[in-house]
Write a structure and sequence with these properties.
rod-shaped, 200 residues, single chain, mainly alpha
Length: 200
């Protein structure tokens, strides 16, 4: 049974291949016959050989067979009887194509999946890091503009993460004073940030 009548196999069809034309604008009869003969005699065996080389990747194997037959058509002198069997040349070309494709895949960086792209999207680029640094300096300057009592309360409650009761113990002031200083310190900080062009 001819290989082209099977359900799965290479899509290589000598009638749809690129046409090399003669001076008169027609496909050379010798070239056409060579391609048809090569396809009929070697395409099936070549496909199965390449399928093993590509670890069962049908699409890749079909592409390699098609490229191999195209190169055979482009180099008809390679099939002179003195050069040996045609199948040996075809298998060698196919093997080199697979090796070249494998090396090309290894030389490219690995493709990133959805998760890696999401992580990359969440990372801040350099321009954003500069903006963050400038904003951090403005916030630090706004905090320096507060009174020492207000700075101390904010330092304990927000930056060190202490509760109001813990801050009262550390600062040695009553709990009610910590609460009122925190309220007024946040209000003063909000105004200082707005003066510097930062909306809290």
């Amino acid at each position: 049974m001819p290989w082209s009548s099977r359900k799965r196999g290479p899509r290589t069809d000598p009638d749809r291949s690129a046409h090399r034309v003669s001076d008169r604008g027609t496909l050379s009869t010798v070239d056409e016959e060579l391609l048809r003969t090569l396809y009929a005699e070697h395409a099936g065996a070549l496909f199965h050989y390449v399928l093993r080389l590509t670890s069962g990747d049908w699409q890749w194997a079909e592409d390699v067979v098609q490229e191999t037959l195209l190169r055979a058509w482009q180099h008809p002198a390679a099939f002179a009887p003195a050069r040996g069997p045609a199948r040996a040349w075809l298998c060698t070309v196919a093997r080199h194509l697979v090796i070249d494709a494998h090396r090309a895949r290894q030389s490219r960086p690995a493709e990133a999946g959805g998760e890696a792209l999401q992580r990359a999207a969440e990372q801040t680029p350099g321009e954003d890091q500069i903006e963050q640094a400038l904003q951090s300096w403005a916030v630090a300057d706004a905090i320096r503009s507060l009174s020492p009592d207000h700075r101390a309360v904010l330092l304990e409650t927000y930056y060190r993460g202490r509760t109001m009761a813990e801050a009262a113990q550390v600062l040695a002031i009553p709990l009610g004073t910590v609460k009122s200083r925190t309220y007024y310190a946040l209000h003063a900080l909000r105004l200082a940030l707005q003066e510097r062009g930062i909306e809290p």
